[in-house]
Amino acid sequence: MKNNLAERRAERRWTQADLASALGVSRQTVISIEREKFDPSLPLAFLIARTFDCAIEDIFTAD
Amino acid sequence: MSKASFTSGRAPAHHYVLAIILGVILTVVVSVLVGASNPDDFWLAAAIGALCTAYPAMSLAGKVFVSNHTVTRDPHGEQSVELQWMRQAGAGAFLDVLAAIVVASLVLAIGRFNIDALAVLPGLVALSVVDAGLRYVVIRHHTLK
């Protein structure tokens, strides 16, 4: 899945560690999602969308 | 299954001292018990008991007195990528061990060798652990490089 998580995080001037802390996951998880090496679970995708006040499909798109 | 993250925090100095003291006490107690179970060779048995006990005892003591200050549990750790890495590493290691057992069984059956199971079984455990660990490191490296 493609995503624009890195751009959205940068807009808020958050570090990867900040976002990981907000999501309650490890920093490696954020890195892996941003590099599109790891597709988050549905609960985590919802949590990410809620964190950025948007819908899941605003962040994640199918390849 | 939740995941923990190491923090940059440190425990108060006296917690490290308490951890060492508890670790030493546990090690001594277990080694004396092991030694007492073999009175003919008390010191040898106690030394082996101490060698086997020291690491887990120190780890337990560290968990009790130090980890609360240096490790935090991620609230959604079960969603972390590390869990996927562990699953992949575990699945790969299982197949490796299975293949190793099949090949070794064939070699033993064809060659009509007899080997001591007591020596082989710990080797299988070691192979599983090392294999899973190496696979985890490789998967992690590929993902984060």
Structure in a nutshell:
Chain A has five helices and two strands; from the N terminus they run βαααααβ.
Going across the biggest sheet of chain A, name each strand in turn.
1-2
Number of structurally distinct domains of chain B: 2
Calculate Rg of chain B over CA atoms. 21 Å
Global mean pLDDT of chain A: 94
Q: Got a strand count of chain A? A: 2
**Sheet with most strands: strand arrangement of chain B:** 1-2
Strand-and-helix sequence of chain B, N→C?
A: EHHHEHH
What oligomeric state do these chains adopt? heterodimer
Task: Describe this structure as you would to a colleague.
The complex is a heterodimer of chains A (63) and B (145). Chain A has 63 residues and is mostly helical. Chain A has one domain: 434 Repressor (Amino-terminal Domain) (Orthogonal Bundle), CATH 1.10.260.40. Chain A has five helices and two strands. In chain A, helix 2 (16-23) packs across helix 3. Chain A is globular, with a radius of gyration of 10 Å. Chain B folds into two domains: 4-73, no CATH class; 80-144, no CATH class. Helix content of chain B is 77%, strand content 4%. Chain B has five helices and two strands, in the order βαααβαα. A two-stranded antiparallel ribbon of chain B has the order 1-2. In chain B, helix 1 (13-36) packs antiparallel against helix 2 (42-65) and helix 4 packs antiparallel against helix 5. The two termini of chain B are 26 Å apart.
Task: List the defining traits of the structure above.
heterodimer, A: 63 residues, mainly alpha, 434 Repressor (Amino-terminal Domain), two-stranded antiparallel sheet, 2 strands, 59% helix, 6% strand, globular, B: 145 residues, 2 domains, 5 helices
